[in-house]
Amino acid sequence: MRRTLIALGTGLGLLGSTAVSAPAQAADDVTAPLASTVATAQQVAAFWLADGAANLKNATPYAVDTAVRVIRVPSGAQRGKPGYVEPAPGPSSPNGKLPTTSGKVFFVGADGQAHWCTGTAVQSVYRNVVATAGHCLYDTEGYSITLDKWVFVPGYSEGTTPWGLYVGKQAFAHHDFAVYRDSDRDYAFVNVYNGVVPSSSGVLTDSGRLVDNIGGQGLTYNQPTNPSIDVFGYPAGPNPDGTQPYAGQTLERSHGKTFNAAAPAIKGDDLIGTDSPFTGEGSLGSSWLLNYGNGNRSGYLNGITISVSDTDGDKRYDTSVSPYFDGELYGVYSAAKNLWTGSIA
Fold first, then answer.
1. CA-CA distance, 241 to 48, in Å (whole number)?
2. What is the DSSP code (8-state) at residue 72?
3. In tens digits, what is the pLDDT along the chain, a chain of 345 residues?
4. Does the residue 187 lie in any domain?
């Protein structure tokens, strides 16, 4: 059942009276506004780009639900007929075989500080959809429905916005995550406005639609577990032993086979895991791409990192986990794929 999230007031939690559910059509998605007007979106862009992009540069990796105990579980039966959304290959990558579709999502957290996760562009009707972890969009710690001043910067590096900055307009998530914090549904899709870059006079200049500029990954669901997958993200945090192998400044890649997993502490009993050395901070929202091609730098999104785990007890993370992508995920994506956004410049 499709439900629409509506803000009613301030100072109360999501499970209190800040939201109501209004039944509509046929998918278990909820939607919430981010920057719903052009004027608001311009203010959000100015917040991140002002003073030489100081807020982008000073943002820290999000550290909510970054690590969890993961257990392997037996593989179940195939969930349904596999489905696919074809990718839209992007331009030549400055990083060689790495995708241009990955970047950082920036927002202001419940602590009032600027943070970031990883996100990725996905193909859609209006070429304007970003995928990330649900808790890199919905506020799971404070009293707001969504995290504030949400933007996507593909190819971000040290304050630069090589493909522009894209302000989020509308958020889509699964009802069970938005309301019950069910980690089996910890994924989200965001429609973003056209990108903007600041001109020498400080006026925002339109840089075009997201997927037109950088390409968009495909999407697939109801796939069997155990294929190899490529994970792309910006890990930054330390291992439990204190070592910090990643700085979060460049896009990283790992490769491993997937398996069925569970994480009871975060209400996750229908997850998938993959071998990956990524640390949790920074890599939340990383894309898991099936059949990724080094030549065209595209594949099919089949997972999103929601946490990491040290499964062998050596105090170094070795596993990333994601919700299993099934038909209900496709329903949430389908609610986002047809929404037009336009320009804010």
1. 34
2. E
3. 333 333 322 222 322 222 323 333 345 899 999 999 999 999 999 999 999 899 999 999 999 999 999 999 987 666 789 999 999 988 876 768 899 999 999 999 999 999 999 999 999 999 999 999 999 999 998 878 999 999 999 999 877 899 999 999 999 999 999 999 999 999 999 999 999 998 777 789 999 999 999 999 999 999 998 889 999 999 999 999 999 999 999 999 999 999 999 999 888 999 999 999 999 999 999 999 999 999 999 999 999 999 999 999 999 999 999 999 999 999 999 999 999 999 999
4. yes
Per-residue burial over 38-48, b = 16 or more CB atoms within 10 Å of its CB, e = otherwise: eebbbebbebb
Judge whether 149 lies within some domain: yes
**By residue range, what is the domain housing residue 308?**
3-337
* Assigned domain for 152 exists: yes
**Domain count for the chain:** 1
Other beta carbons within 10 angstroms of residue 194's beta carbon come to 22
DSSP 266: G
Place of tokens 């894309």: 287
- C-alpha distances out from residue 283 to 20, 62, 236, Å: 32, 9, 7
- Nearest Cα to 269, choosing from 323, 232, 222, 200? 323
Q: How far is Cα 176 from Cα 221, in angstroms, rounded to an integer?
A: 18
